[in-house]
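During data preparation, a discrete fold description was generated, and the record follows.
___
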Amino acid sequence: MKKAIVVVIDSLGIGALPDAAAYGDVGSNTTKHICESVDVNWKNLQALGLGNSSLLAEGELPGCESVESPLASYGIMKEKSPGKDTTTGHWEMAGIVLDKPFVVFDQEYPSFPQELIDRFCAEAGVGGILGNKASSGTAIIAELGSEHERTGWPICYTSADSVYQIAAHNDIIPLEELYRQCEIARRLCDEYQIGRIIARPFIGEEGHYIRTKDRHDFSIALPEETILDHLQKNGIRTQAVGKIGSIFNESGITDSYHDSGNPACIERMLALAEDQSDEHRFIFVNLVDTDMLFGHRRDVLGYAKEVERIDRALGKLIETLNEGDLLIINGDHGCDPTHRGTDHTREHVPLLWFEKGRIIENLGVRESFADMSQSICSYFGTPEMIHGKSFR
């Protein structure tokens, strides 16, 4: 039985896209700048050909240089859709190419339209909101957590992404109620074309607030079929790990595992890979911590060490694969921890295609992330999708 595993190392960009100037991201290169700043130990990614991919973008990766005989076919992918957010990146690699970006709220105070706030407060039954600006999640909780505890009002904030985030202390707004408020915000934000509503629960006391692992993303409705829907319709079992289920609104997913954080997601990934099933399977994994814990916080060393942990897991994963199994490693956007600000960066992403028993190729510069999903169709022998060009 065939098995394909996609591992998205969240925000692993590999060089600014040609249109990066429109996003303020000229000169960004998440992978290269980390390698230039830290002595990296990414031996499995190097052996697979990450350094070879980098040669197609902006040259060698110090400490993760190209190799003469990589284990995987290698390339880089351009994002054809406008934007540099999680939803846009994942949707495109799954076969959806957007013709216009999701709406991003104003970065100054106030961020959200007053009409939206009024409708949200009325339907959620709250007296008002706190925040109403772009901010780091940990920073805004530290800033407004005590006022939130005093008033009971949710902390609503945005970022450079198309998001409406709601943070709340578990003792003030219980998790079930927080999710209910996010569902209200999701419905109201549909008409504004906002990509995601994100629940951000936290615990603790002033000066010591801690975000919990009960984050949940409420994505805007999918405009068309994805690789998940397509494969499921063609008799292939689809399994989602981490925030994949939320990004795709559980559409086309047979088994959805909402594991939180990279250690849990890696454990699940390895368990699914080791399962010797009697059916074709497609396993879609997002490893979010590189982006959430290190990219946005501009922690270069932390990012490098997290990729090293992922690298070790990839070594174990490869050992479990049978002849003919497929492993794809990529990113969904950049988040260069050496770049200005704390936001995502508009970058190419690496493409490593490890198919046991297949000849290694230079896949070149792919014009769309959707080439990945079209190539997965070729791998499983299903009909083609609308977007993308297969390289298999």
Q: What stands out?
A: Residues 114-219 form a domain with the Alpha-Beta Plaits fold (CATH 3.30.70.1250).
